[in-house]
Amino acid sequence: MRLILKTLWALARIAAITASLTVSGWAALAPPEPWEQRALDLPPRSLTWSERQPLREMRLMRVVLHVAPGLATDLLSRAAPSLTRTEVSRVLDRAAQGVSPEDLAKEITPAPEVRPNTVQQRRGPGGAKFLKVE
Known about the structure:
With 134 residues, the chain is mainly α. It is built from seven helices and no strands.
């Protein structure tokens, strides 16, 4: 039984490594599709490594939105509390379509700041109460 579990664990690790290498190789090295060239305004010639940066970002954003869209939206909405979850979702979708970060920044309107109710957060005199066991 132990040998079977070790073998299954090794196969799962091999599959995960192979999948991550395949996705990162595709994102970094595959030539751009015609619609990707139009979306990012890429030149029709062979691209240098630095010219491929927007292409890599767009492809990885598409992968993230296909694999775990809810998780990506939740993590980014926690990192940017001034944006609502729907705004973060819209920004992620637009970034996956190839919209530049400068254009995305123009589209975002920050939500009004929510201030917590300070009256409810105050503690009473003496702080926390503890039971003494005798």
